[in-house]
Structures are given as C-alpha cells and as structure tokens.
Specification:
single chain, mainly alpha, 60% helix, Initiation_fac_eIF4g_MI, MI domain-containing protein, nucleus, RNA binding
C-alpha cells in the first residue's frame, strides 16, 4: 500500500542538494534493476532482488509526487529512452506520469490548472534529448492509459497529456 507519509519525508530530504542527488542515483539504480541500461553503465550491477508490481507502482507514485511538487525535476529521467522501455520500466513510467498529472491538479480550486503542467514540462528545455521521448510516451502510453482510475481521472490525464505535449512541442520551435 502506498504511504504518502514517506513521500512527505522524501520531499523534505530533497531540500538538501546531496540527498536530492542520492534520490536521483537511487532512481537510476531502480531503472537498472528493472533491466534498463545505457552505454555508460557497468554491467556488474546485481539484480538479485526481484521487483513486484506493487513495489514498482508505490515507488512510481512516490517519485511522481516528488516531481509534481518540485522535489525532483523531470530531468532525472534523462537516462531513459522513453521510446524503448522494458515492461517493468514502462509500467513505472506510466504510473509516474499519471501521478504527476493528477498531483499537479490537486491544488487547483477552479477547474484544471494548465500553467502548473506547462511549467513542470518546460523545465526539460535544458535536456533537449528528452523532449521527443516524452512526447512519444505521453501520446502513445499515458494518453491511452486505462489505469488512471475513474472517468474523471482518465479525462484529467488525457487533458494533461495534451497540455504537456503542446508545451514540449513549443520547446522544439
């Protein structure tokens, strides 16, 4: 069961630059455990612990909330090729982006808040190699998700994907 208390603690810890980097490195280690590699990786990473779906979903919710609330930036995903992901990493990223889109709308009192999503996704302008991967993943996976919850949540996620996609497209101009 996902416990938001641990996310609150993690957000406080991310206020310290060194601990924020530790969270980033732990996320990258998590991707290695799920089978993701890149050319810079050492192949001696131990994969002795199998991650079950519940564990992956809970971690994705935590990291998604951290990103939505500003504890971490989307640029921590720069090591991933979002067009070609392992099954577990794809599930993780799908839940992560759903969480980000839903969490950004929780504080909005009057309808949907386009500006929050646009601000969050516009921060990837410093890592332009991420833009097309994010566009692809949001359009092909997150926008067509069936795990977002009820109809209202699914509609919010679909709308959020469009806003994020438009923001990313503007960054390419």
């Amino acid at each position: 069961m996902y416990n938001p208390y641990y996310t609150l603690i993690a957000k406080r810890l991310c206020g310290d630059r060194k601990l924020k980097m530790a969270f980033q490195f732990s996320l990258w280690d998590l991707f290695k455990k799920m089978g993701e590699t890149n050319d810079d990786d050492d192949d001696d990473f131990e994969e002795d612990t199998e991650l079950d779906t519940r564990h992956i979903v809970n971690l994705a919710k935590m990291f998604g909330t951290l990103m939505a609330e500003g504890g971490l930036g989307l640029n921590v995903l720069k090591n991933l090729n979002l067009s070609y992901l392992q099954a577990k990493t794809k599930t993780f990223c799908e839940v992560l982006f759903i969480t980000i889109l839903l969490q950004t709308q929780k504080a909005s009192k009057e309808g949907r808040d386009e500006k929050t999503i646009a601000n969050l996704f516009s921060r990837v302008k410093d890592t332009p190699q991420m833009i097309t991967g994010l566009q692809y993943f949001l359009k092909k996976v997150v926008g067509k998700t069936d795990i977002a919850g009820g109809k209202v949540e699914k509609d919010t996620v679909k709308w959020g994907c469009k806003v994020a996609g438009d923001t990313l497209q503007d960054l390419l101009k």
